[in-house]
Amino acid sequence: MQFAPGYRRFALPAFVGAAVAAVVFPPLGAVLLAVGAFVLWFFRDPERSPPDEPGVVAPADGRVSVIRVEDGRVRVGVFMNVTDVHVNRAPVSGAVRTVTHRPGAHRPAFSKDSDRNERVDIELGTDGGDHEVSLIAGAFARRIHSYVAPGDELVRGQKLGHIDFGSRADVLLPPEYGSGDVVVEKGESVRAGETVLARR
């Protein structure tokens, strides 16, 4: 099993603490061991294979929490629960135009207030228009890690970042897409890099 970068920063202290506590106070050692195991599980990074069918794929595991039109473009958002994989993937193949970090609040990612949360916006240029992926922090997420930089060429389903213990990933579709091009519904479970969200 692969793990997202940074897992050692959380898992190692828990496992070291568990080893020490096992001698001094075994119940605490058991708790710390469980914490370390949870961190490894949370940072898991399983392989994914994009589908053969065309379309914009989900940037994250989770449930569709947002489908709306804003300024003439359709936004589809995926809320990542604590049980979901938190590695994010490119919804389409294309060139990274910009990567922009925007500081902000840390409201629950499923709430409307989360639109003002800290985020990283990644703009992808494609033959079919520009797509924007937004990695949005939540109430407990404090670190958004982008793996890409302007100029990078990505293929659909390629890993582009992860959020420590958080929260939501959105795709803002090009103006050519309408609400009728979205093929998922709110509340539907999706898998990063595999589930098609929209097609034209």
TrEMBL record:
It comes from the Archaea. Keywords: Cell membrane, Decarboxylase, Lipid biosynthesis, Lipid metabolism, Lyase, Membrane, Phospholipid biosynthesis, Phospholipid metabolism, Pyruvate, Transmembrane, Transmembrane helix, Zymogen. One of its GO terms (molecular function) is carboxy-lyase activity. GO terms for biological process: phospholipid biosynthetic process. The keyword rRNA-binding does not apply. The chain crosses the membrane at residues 12-43. NCBIfam families: anchor_synt_D, PRK05305.2-3, PRK05305.2-5. PANTHER family: ARCHAETIDYLSERINE DECARBOXYLASE PROENZYME-RELATED. This is Protein sorting system archaetidylserine decarboxylase. It comes from Haloferax chudinovii.
